[in-house]
Structure formats: C-alpha cells, structure tokens
Amino acid sequence: MQKADVSVIAVASSHGIMHAYLVLLPALIPLLKGDMGNYWTLGLLTSLVFLFYGWGSFPVGFLADRVSKKLLISASMAMCGISAVIVSLSHSLPITALAFILLGIGASLYHPPGYASMALLSHRIRGRYMGIQGLGGDLGMAISFFTTTAIGSFFGWRNAFLAWGLLGMLMAVVDMQTIIDETIQTGPSVARLNYLDTLRRMFTTDHLRNLLLVSVIVVCSGALWNGVSAFILAYINEVKGVSILIAGGLSTFKYTIGAFGNVLGGELSDRLGRRKILLFGFGLFTVSLLALTISPGNLILMFLMVGILGFS
Questions:
Q1: 20/168 Cα distance (integer angstroms)
Q2: pTM recorded for the entire structure
Q3: What is the radius of gyration, based on Cα positions, of the chain?
Q4: 81 and 165 in contact (C-beta within 8 Å)?
Q5: In contact, 49 and 104? CB cutoff 8 Å
Q6: What are the Cα distances from residue 241, in Å, to 14, 116, 206, 252, 292?
Q7: What is the pLDDT of residue 72?
Q8: Following DSSP, what letter does each residue of the chain receive, concatenated?
Q9: Per residue in 194-217, pLDDT tens?
Q10: All residues at 6 or more sequence positions from 180 whose CB lies less than 8 Å from its CB, including other chains
C-alpha cells in the first residue's frame, strides 16, 4: 500500500474517532443521569462540547493554511483523548465541564486540516474523497454508539470514556507517523493574504451572497445533526421503550447506513451536481425524522425509519 493511501486511511480514521467522541456523552445519557444530573444538565454539557467545537473551527481554519495539517490532526486526537480520560476520572461537575470544553476544542482542531487534506488530493473526484471522509466520520459514530453503550452497561460509563481516551492518544501517535501533508500551488497574491485580507474577500459583494446562503445551510444542518445525534439513543430508549443496548444497536445501524450514504452521495455529487444531492438529502432526512417521531415502537419499523434517517 502506498504512503498516500495510508495517509488517507489515517485522516479518515481520525475523522471517525473525532466524531466518536462527540457521541460519547449522548450514548451514555441513560447511564449518566444519576451521576451528572438530569437531561437539562446533560444537555448543557453536550452544548458546551458543540459550542467550542463549532466556534473553534473558525480560527483553526486560518491556522490550517499555515501550520502542518498532520500536526493539527494529531493534536486533535491527543486533546480529545486526554479530555475523555479526565472525564473518566473526574468526580466534580465543574472539572467534568472543563474536560468537555477541552473535548470541544480538541474536536475543533480536526475539520479544517482534515477536509483540506482530502480536498487537496484531487479536483476532478473531490466528491469521492469527501465521501471517504464522511464514511470515516459516520463509521466512527456507529462504532462509538454500540461499543460505548456496551462498555457502559457492563463495566460502567467511566471505563467507556477511559477506553476511548486511550484510543485517541494512540491515534495521535499513528497520525504523526503516517499522515502526509498535502500542499497546493498558489499564486503570490494568495500566498501573501493575511487574516484581514481573507475576511475582506469573504465579505465582498461577489462572495457575500454565497457565504450567507452556505452559513444558513450549515447552521440548520448542524442543528439537525447535533440535536438528533445528542438525544436519539435516549429518545429510542425512553420514548419508544427499547432497551439501551438495542437503542445503541439502532443508533449504530443509523450511522453505518449513513457511512455508505456518504460514499454514494460523494460519487453522485461528482456526476449530478452538489445542489440536487443536497436538496434530496435534506428533504429525505426531514420526512424520515418526522416519521420516526409519529411511528409506533415496533422494532422492524424502527429499523426502517432509522435506516432511512441515517442514509439521508
């Protein structure tokens, strides 16, 4: 296997592990209620993670153009791993909250350099590489939901955080050894752009309309994704009356289907255009989410609804 192929696998795997950390708390919500409080407290802790995860990506985007992408991805894995270990050892809510803030910051380090690494591989089949990137992310969440609920159910939620924490620190070492920093040739005028120049270009008349439109789409899709991923397991467990292990299996099934939906979406976007696939995905997601909420707790029907939700 060529070094470039190993690098792609490492970047995609790191994407999966990073997203696995984002669902650790949601996967363990039914087991955490006694130790960390009610759904309100757990929801606030989840929001802390996503707050720093989201806003942290903005400055990291500038950093990823100037600092080694391999270094940033490795740092993401290390910070996420360390924060998970802290959560596993903490018996104080403030310390736990600080650990989740660290987790959000660590996760924010991944996307700009990770997506840039994939995007720089090819202009012609960029959708394919984005599909591979998405495959890694969804498989990470799929594996995390099932393994985390299983470890948490049999060995306690602290050991679930500890196991994933050690895996993240190991992946940081692997990334430093395997990821190749991709570069792209730019003209002198682009190379000299500083932060303010970049911001001015983003907010010029030519770019402003697209920037606002994409921002609205990303905010709405983020709200959908974060809300569903944060509480889908607890919702299936408590509202639909399914055991926590089966709920974890359903969540795993959702993201496994979603992983392959990423690959198909990437291939089709290269052939049919991004807009058609984007509209189809959002539309099907919305309909399937509504169907999930109004459908009875029949297990076969649940698998069908969750599968469509994950694919879209």
A1: 10
A2: 0.73
A3: 20
A4: yes
A5: yes
A6: 34, 42, 52, 17, 13
A7: 93
A8: --HHHHHHHHHHHHHHHHHHHHTHHHHHHHHHHHHH-SHHHHHHHHHHHHHHHHHHHHHHHHHTTTS-HHHHHHHHHHHHHHHHHHHHH---HHHHHHHHHHHHHHHHTTHHHHHHHHHTT-STTHHHHHHHHHHHHHHHHHHHHHHHHHHHHHH-HHHHHHHHHHHHHHHHHHHHHH---------HHHHT--HHHHHHHHTSHHHHHHHHHHHHHHHHHHHHHHHHHHHHHHHHHHTS---HHHHHHHHHHHHHHHHHHHHHHHHHHHHH-HHHHHHHHHHHHHHHHHHHHHS---HHHHHHHHHHHHH-
A9: 667 766 776 676 677 888 888 888
A10: 3, 4, 7, 70
* Minimum mean pLDDT range among 17-26, 136-145, 196-205: 196-205
Please give the structure tokens belonging to residue 4: 């470039």
Q: Return the amino acid letter for 195.
A: Y
State the Cα–Cα distance between residues 234 and 225, nearest whole angstrom: 15
